[in-house]
Amino acid sequence: MPLDPGPAHDSPDAHLDAIVRGGETLGRDIVEVAAFLDALDASAHAQMAQIRLARDAADAVSAANDDVQETAGKVAQASEDTLDAVTGSAALLRDSGHRSQGVANWVQSVDARMADVSGTLKMVDGSTAEIASIAAQVNILAINAKIEAVRAGAAGRGFAVVAEAINDLARQTAGATATITQAITGLRQRIDELRAEAGKASADAAEVLRAAVETDQVLARMTASVEATRAAALEISGSAAEVGVATGRFAPAFRTLVETTGHTADGVHEARERVDRLVSLGESVVQNSVLAGGAHADGPLIAFVRETATRIAGLFEQAVATGRISLEELFDRRYTPIPGTDPVQVMAPFTRLTDAILPAVQEPALDLDPRIVFCAAVDRNGYLPTHNRKYSQPQGRDAVWNAANCRNRRVFDDRVGLSAGRSTAPFLIQVYRRDMGGGEFVLMKDLSAPIHVGGRHWGGFRMGYRF
Q1: Of 253, 268, 290, which closes a domain?
Q2: Cβ contacts of residue 141 below 8 Å, gap of 6+?
Q3: Residue 242: CATH number of its domain
Q4: In the chain, what is the straight-line distance between the N-terminal and C-terminal CA atoms, in Å?
Q5: 439 burial class (0-12, 13-18, 19+ CB within 10 angstroms)?
Q6: Is residue 216 pLDDT above 90, yes or no?
Q7: Helix (H, G, I), strand (E, B) or coil at 380
Q8: Are strands 440-453 and 456-466 parallel, antiparallel or unpaired?
Q9: For the segment 415-426, what is each residue's pLDDT rounded down to a tens digit?
Q10: For 332-376, what is each residue's pLDDT tens digit?
Q11: Where would you tag: which of 16, 151, 177, 203 has the fewest CB atoms within 10 A of its CB?
């Protein structure tokens, strides 16, 4: 909407005053928008990180599911192979069992036949004993016949020859009987040994049969288990295939979401950068309007800050002139961290000088206006060596409390801090949200003026105050 030019008799100064007021109001609104964009930018990048993690997790799920499907296939194949092997082993074992049964039956039949042979040998042994007894009796009779033949004289000679032949036969029979008896005894020993071995073999065969039955039962259980494993593996493979289809559908959606969120985050970030430029432009409008003669409600504060910056410059030049510090030390930007500080505090070669001369200038400035929160000098890098006493407390263990109450010896290199330290304009008014620590922010103005020492820009004098 174009500005209302107002009545013709309005003066140029009145328009400049309106521009100053409008520019300051606009600056405040833009800072509020910038704060919202900051939060949105942080949220967008946080969401982007979470979405990337979700996408990576989805990719990991898909990869893991592929592994599961592959493994399930291998398990199913291994189960199939194992089932074939177990089935074959069971068949071989059953065949071995049948053969073992046949062997056991044969061994048992051999034992029975051996028993029959042993009985027959007993009968033969008895008959041989009877033959031996008869041979002995015949031998006695032959001896008696020979005696009678001798008594008969010539008449018994023929009978004596017969008796001698019978006697020889009896002796041969007795010898043969003894040989047979000895052979039968050895044969009976061998048969008894064979029966003992056959009995042991029969017992072993029975044990083999019992073990074969148990093994067959174990193999039956193994077969059932392998079949169940194969079925489970096939079921897992099927479920994994379904999961693969599902992940295949949402993976592209995740990629699209990542791209969309990335574009949104980039757009928010770009908008934030543009707002920063808009804030600087608004501050420039107010500054130029005031320098052109426009009235500003904070005119007295502007004049005070400019005068104080000049006063501090004079104190620095005097310190150099009297030898309290060299010009090189005053402009030395080597910062030494103070051990154990959180947030980190640092010392510079000129910090002890500022501690000695700045409090007398900065502390009274706090009483100039109730809106004033702080007054402090910073170098071109935003380093604030000496703060107001209320913000220069010794640090404790609470970092949040330290951030709000221990603000001396710290580098404030944010946009406002760097602009205040590096601006060479007669003055600079900035609107910003001051971080008080613990997530607390206060909307403030930052008024600064440059400090020049020996023609060199050292930094600026800052005054922070509320609206």
Answers
A1: 253
A2: 166
A3: 1.10.287.950
A4: 26
A5: exposed
A6: no
A7: coil
A8: antiparallel
A9: 999 999 999 999
A10: 999 999 999 999 999 999 999 999 999 999 999 999 999 999 999
A11: 151
